[in-house]
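Workshop exercise sheet. Pairs work together: one partner reads the sequence aloud, the other fills in the structure field after running the prediction. Swap roles for the next sheet.
Pair: D.N. / O.F.
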Amino acid sequence: MKILSIETSCDETAISILEVTGEKNSPSFSILADETYSQIKLHEQYGGVFPMLAKREHAKNLPIILEKILKEAKMLTLGINTFDEVKMENILSREEGMFKAVSSLLSSIEKPDINHIVVTTGPGLEPTLWVGIVFAKALNLAWNIPITPVNHMEGHLLSVLIDNSREEDQTIDFSKLYFPSLGLLISGGHTELVLTKQIGDYTKIGQTVDDAVGEAFDKVARVLGLPYPGGPKVSQLAQEGKENPLVKLPRPMLHSGDYNFSFSGIKTAVLYLSKKLQDQNIWDEQTKADIARDFENSCTEVLFTKTQKAVEEYGAQSVIIAGGVAANTHIREQFQNNLSVPILLPKQKLATDNAVMIGIAGYFQILNNTKNYSYTGENNPDEIKADGNWSVDAHK
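Structure field:
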């Protein structure tokens, strides 16, 4: 089975082609092609992701990336391909310039040897999700390859199953997944604890009630005068920090008695503390580093304490830590050194948004006979919608 996967939930435009072989209980994955275009440079001036700009860039980048990965996977064959151009123009009508680029490419190449298209339909920024969805619909119209919607957060959970730094086939040994497992999903838009009994069987037991932890990192970076994306910059600065009696930040909801999180208050505490220290003329690079250090320690302590408590209550045999903030070295080290059960972490490149993880999640959706969509099949792709709040434990 060959799967083409599309990811446009935020500011990364990504497409991959995976080949899956072997038995259902021990599939072997091969990454035939994988490309991700980052938009970080475009969004720096806004201090965060500007959704309509991200949407426009996805529309521009998707046909370019598609051509590139088809070449990389040796699936690009020049030829004449006909399809309903009026319908395709209607599908892509809201994405400026996309119809011309997509129709020009698809009319000049033969249908590739791909069995399924999978696409992120939520959660995420709905304007950017829609671009990936209509692109998948256009491919279905031109190639008659069924589409399967995929949950972005399930992709993050399953990103630990494959190492994209290796080129050889990778067989998943399910005996090493240690179910039930507890997933800690930490990113710019999400902070969630998800109990995973088996792949596809998820129960969310806690989530942020306001800001996600990655969002808090970015906001604190702005307070400290650091450029976007702020998370890695705060973490780098924190390495230079020292214990400072003037810097003591709260550990929000540490003893709340549940598994929910809150990171809005700590961002506000950093803002007030920074203003106070500036008014007292206690504001230099070392002080900023001390604040970054205690902020990172605070977030890590809250994440670790609640996760360890959930491990004990639910009898989890392993912990999956995934999402963009899973790339944070300090958080990774604290969990690896102190958690009472084995930890599964994605490789650094798979911690951030990518299409490989969407392809993996899509494979298991296909395996479980999730509804597929095709303009020539029983289920119409026009039914596929973007859902910015699609929970990983909700069924569609």
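Discussion prompt: The chain has a mean pLDDT of 93. What would you look at next?
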